[in-house]
Amino acid sequence: MKLLQNKxxxxxxxxxxxxxxxxxxxxxxxxxxxxRDGHFIYKYAGEDGTNTDEMPNKDYQKLPxxxxxxxxRPTNYYAMLxxxxxxxxxxxxxxxxxxxxxxxxxxxxxxxxxxxxxxKLRDTDSGETVYTRTIDLSDITRIVDxxxxxxxxxxxxxxxxxxxxPLYTNATMQIVIxxxxxxxxxxxxxxxxxxxxxxxxxxxxxxxxxxxxxETDVFGNTTLVHKNSLNIDSYEVFVPTPSIPNIRRKFKxxxxxxxxxxxxxxxxxxxxxxxxxGYYENFSIVIPDPKISTVxxxxxxxx
Length: 303
Known about the structure:
By secondary structure, the protein is mainly β. The protein is built from three helices and 23 strands.
């Protein structure tokens, strides 16, 4: 099992821009007008033909009854960096971005709608491309015979995880998400240095917490309203007993921090690495002997 905390807060370059209307202190707004402040879109909840003395992001920090601006979503530019996976950065045909990296060995993309992803790492000091990898997102696990080859629906993976990127102190990473003429989308980018915990044991419990509603009236008619659901995973990790103090310090440091949990870090994982982007709710350690101990975790995903 590995942990990955995102270290990317912006791009060096991208083939899309923040072109939403920006808030101006000298302008006046009507109810439900939308403007950009920073990397987020705010909707005006004040009276028509008025404005606020403070920027929308500062006004939003007030008590709900005192706010005149409501934060509604990130900009398209920032959607895959905002900490959520349900908001997506979208661009026609391809999403092409360049990142500055510093000894980062792993990359994960979640909520992808594309045909392939290409990753290149360039050493800034030498100008040499030191790593190139193209990943076909076609999922062929359902193709088991000639009949399924001919008639099975083509499915594409919605996430990728790679952790074989070479370590360079001063490098740039180019990522191309290609949807072959369609709209390329990505819900979440996570890039940084992985932290190895130990070997994940079997007996993993994967569950989902649904926020959909089911209402039945007095006549027995049921209405189902589909909403989101969260992944909740419970599992045990076997770790060397001498590493327990370091692991305890690490989890204390990462309390209430959004992380990517990689339960199966093998390159050819048959379970898509069992990824969960979220935070840990429970963390406990059992030390049965001086060599190997057991860390128990419960992870709750973030939408």
